[in-house]
Design brief:
7-stranded mixed beta sheet; 15 strands; HD domain-containing protein; nucleotidyltransferase; two-stranded antiparallel ribbon; Hydrophobic Seed Protein; 480 residues; 25 helices; 53% helix; Beta Polymerase, domain 2
């Protein structure tokens, strides 16, 4: 494909000019070329040169009149990076690699462009376009990457068993690219995923999780999970998820297959959010169903308490995947714990107290919770789904009405522990907590408003039950 049209000709021309000044050949390779052909946006540019990548990066920086510190140099890897406007540029000299069986870290040596293309993971990532003026735009496609893009298939440049054994992370990348691009994995390549899957044991969990998260963020993430399952990788990296698979039958009654249900929920929520943690909540919302599954005569299959048990499992799963054990984990935990609450409200008479409690407990995560719950409505019966969604519309409308009148999002009772201690001239103790809980429950039930005047009598009565007397009156307290 002589003269490949590159829309951003300016930046590539400047890189080519820098290479010509150094008298070295330079090529844009890999992801940018692939995505450009596919019409996908890409701001990451990988440049391979026959010579020093670091030297070329420094020359490009001079072409753009960037300061010396603009170039980040990684001498151990022979690479350099710099940023031009919103472009991320990485430079490296052409390399060839050899691997030892017990390590994914290769022995790296200087090589030719052909050597560099040979070491690429997939044919669609082995494309190179020359940037030097003499051969501007010349495409080098030694493995038929263009044909594979047109055929929408994932294939390795060399024998797939060797490619995956050398660098097992490429197995996760194969599934990730198939998911992101909507491509198929060729049978020979897929067979190698099955035979080499145990090699993933030498890969760090951080790198596996990074690829898994990219699969989760795909437009239809279920496709990636189904591929991971089909090749046998999913049981190795996510055994808890595999336990969701299968249907038990008793007295002619079966339950839904929670593996496929969860994937449908994940696809559903992906239609409405690109938030990784909302999607993780979809993945984990039913994770404890296998442990809580029971058959009750006359009632059928139950999963009582799976939401609470699932919430308790979230930290351990996050820890194993090396996911952040911070507010992101707590968000997922909260969504898992509360995911049944709005669904239950949509099936019964809605009381203001139930709405207040949901607003209080969900807080700022109410939108995420309602999005998850809508995604959780799956059925082969389209009328049933529509009916539940209409009921959800009613629940959301009433939630807005209660929120507008009571301002319960992230609600905190006006009567705090400090006020209770001052009124009864007490230090910290269990009595303070008991009174706080009673006042909070009274507000949520709608028995009193969330203000000091409305709650004063209840405060005094609850204190009396514990043998406490106020040392100030309401008027005196308000005038302090």
């Amino acid at each position: 494909m002589q003269g490949l049209a590159i829309i951003e000709e300016g930046i590539f021309k400047r890189i080519g000019q820098a290479a010509d000044r150094l008298n070295i050949d330079a090529y844009v390779v890999g992801g940018y070329v692939r995505d450009h052909i596919l019409g996908r946006p890409c701001k990451d540019i990988d440049i391979v040169c026959i010579g020093s990548g670091i030297e070329l990066a420094e020359q490009v920086a001079r072409e753009f009149e960037l300061p010396d510190h603009a170039v980040s140099i990684f001498k151990n890897f022979g690479t350099a990076m710099l940023k031009v406007d919103d472009w991320e540029l990485e430079f490296v000299g052409a390399r060839k690699e050899s691997y030892q069986r017990d390590s994914r870290k290769p022995l790296v040596m200087e090589g030719t462009l052909a050597d560099d293309q040979n070491r690429r993971d997939f044919t669609i990532n082995a494309l190179a376009v020359q940037l030097n003026e003499a051969n501007w735009g010349h495409l080098l496609d030694p493995f038929g990457g263009i044909a594979d893009i047109e055929a929408k298939c994932i294939r390795t440049p060399l024998a797939p068993g060797i490619t995956f054994s050398d660098d097992p992370l490429r197995m996760m990348r194969a599934i990730r690219f198939a998911s992101q691009l909507g491509f198929d994995i060729l049978p020979e390549t897929f067979d190698a995923l099955q035979t080499e899957k145990d090699r993933l044991s030498i890969i760090s969990m951080e790198r596996i999780t990074d690829e898994l998260n990219k699969i989760i963020l795909c437009q239809k993430p279920s496709y990636g999970f189904l591929l991971l399952d089909a090749c046998g990788i999913l049981p190795l990296i996510f055994p808890e998820f595999m336990k969701l698979k299968g249907v038990d039958t008793e007295d002619g009654k079966g339950h839904k297959d929670n593996f496929y249900h969860t994937l449908q929920v994940l696809d559903n929520i992906a239609l409405h959010t690109n938030d990784l943690w909302w999607r993780w909540a979809a993945i984990l919302h039913d994770i404890a169903k296998p442990q809580t599954k029971r058959f009750v005569q006359g009632k059928g299959w139950t999963f009582h308490g799976h939401e609470e048990m699932g919430a308790r499992q979230v930290p351990a799963i996050f820890k194993r995947f090396k996911l952040p054990l911070n507010e992101k984990m707590k968000l997922v935990q909260k969504l898992v714990r509360l995911h049944l609450r709005p669904i239950a409200l949509s099936k019964e008479e809605i009381t203001d107290s139930a709405l207040r409690r949901l607003l209080f407990e969900a807080g700022e995560e109410l939108e995420a919770l309602m999005t998850l719950c809508r995604a959780d409505i799956t059925s082969k019966n389209g009328d049933k789904v529509k009916r539940y969604l209409r009921n959800f519309d009613i629940v959301e409308l009433k939630l807005k009405e209660v929120e507008a009148s009571d301002s319960l999002r992230n609600f905190q009772p006006v009567i705090t522990g400090e006020i209770i201690m001052h009124v009864f001239d007490l230090g910290p103790g269990k009595e303070i907590g008991q009174i706080k809980v009673t006042i909070r429950e009274a507000i949520l039930e709608g028995h009193i408003r969330n203000d000091l005047a409305s709650g004063w009598d209840l405060l005094v009565r609850e204190g009396a039950k514990l043998g406490l007397s106020p040392v100030v009156s309401l008027d005196e307290f308000l005038n302090l």
